[in-house]
Amino acid sequence: EPEVTQTPSHQVTQMGQEVILRCVPISNHLYFYWYRQILGQKVEFLVSFYNNEISEKSEIFDDQFSVERPDGSNFTLKIRSTKLEDSAMYFCASSEGTQEYEQYFGPGTRLTVT
Amino acid sequence: KNQVEQSPQSLIILEGKNCTLQCNYTVSPFSNLRWYKQDTGRGPVSLTIMTFSENTKSNGRYTATLDADTKQSSLHITASQLSDSASYICVVSAKTNAGNNRKLIWGLGTSLAVNP
User: Fold this and answer.
1) How many Å lie between the alpha carbon of A100 and the closest alpha carbon of chain B?
2) Is the dihedral of CA B70, B108, A29, B56 positive or negative?
3) Under 8 Å CB-to-CB from B90, ≥6 apart: which residues?
4) What's the DSSP call for residue A96?
5) Which of B38, B59, B75, B101 is the least buried, fewest Cβ under 10 Å from its Cβ?
């Protein structure tokens, strides 16, 4: 069964550094998402991406963040100048469509900023 | 303000028993309601998606109900198994102003532990 994959599973970085989190969505899906979940808190929407551009983003997704689909398979989240409070699980998801279509989540990348 | 509240926060049951988890929401305009299962350290996995017109939906031992008038949903788990131990998250999809886009409003989840 096709699944969303994410790398790395765990990333440790120093405050102020840049990180790139990588995702490979399910191949025939057209919509891609990034979420984050701080330990013990709710999952939070960051951004959705369709047709090579951002379709929606949350208040969290400021200039520190960017997304890219550099080729036909990868979907990346770049976090510049990381802060301690960026430590969280970051989940990538993909879906065939919006509305009632199911979103399939990857296993997540645990980002630890020290 | 769009919010999703779940109860109880945590629940412990014995293997083989049934349980019901609750979700109340104040989300408008409503698009659909989803229940996800999230194992510790893993991504959420969809259990059910229900639209406004659906009152109940089953997926194996999981049965979700939706009352759009009272803005309440429940997830009933029948004959629980040890592998049901996880966080169960209620997520309500809200229509946005941006065309066909939807915004997912997440609950905090109910942490379920099934003991032998």
Assistant:
1) 7
2) negative
3) B4, B6, B21, B23, B25, B33, B34, B35, B73, B75, B107, B109
4) S
5) B59
What does the alpha-carbon distance between residue A47 and residue A64 come to, in Å, rounded to a whole number? 13
**Residue whose entry in the numeric block shows the structure tokens 């991504």:** B43
Please state, in angstroms and rounded to a whole number, the distance separating the CA atoms of residues A54 and B58.
34
**B96: closest CA of chain A, how far (Å):** 9
At B3-49, the pLDDT tens digits run: 999 999 999 999 999 999 999 999 888 889 999 999 988 899 999 99
Nearest CA to B9 out of B114, B108, B76, B92 is that of B108
H/E element, B89: strand B86-95
Classify A84 as helix, strand or coil: helix
3-state SS, residue B108: coil
- For A52, what's the count of Cα atoms within 13 Å in the CB-facing half-sphere? 3
A44 to chain B, any CB pair closer than 8 A? The answer is yes
Place of tokens 């939070």: A44
Q: Label residue A28 left, alpha or beta by phi (over 0 means left) and psi (-120 to 50 means alpha).
A: alpha
| Both structure tokens of B76 | 């009933």
Tokens 């509305």 appear where? A99
Q: What is the pLDDT of residues B79-112, one digit of tens each?
A: 999 999 999 999 998 877 655 566 788 999 999 9
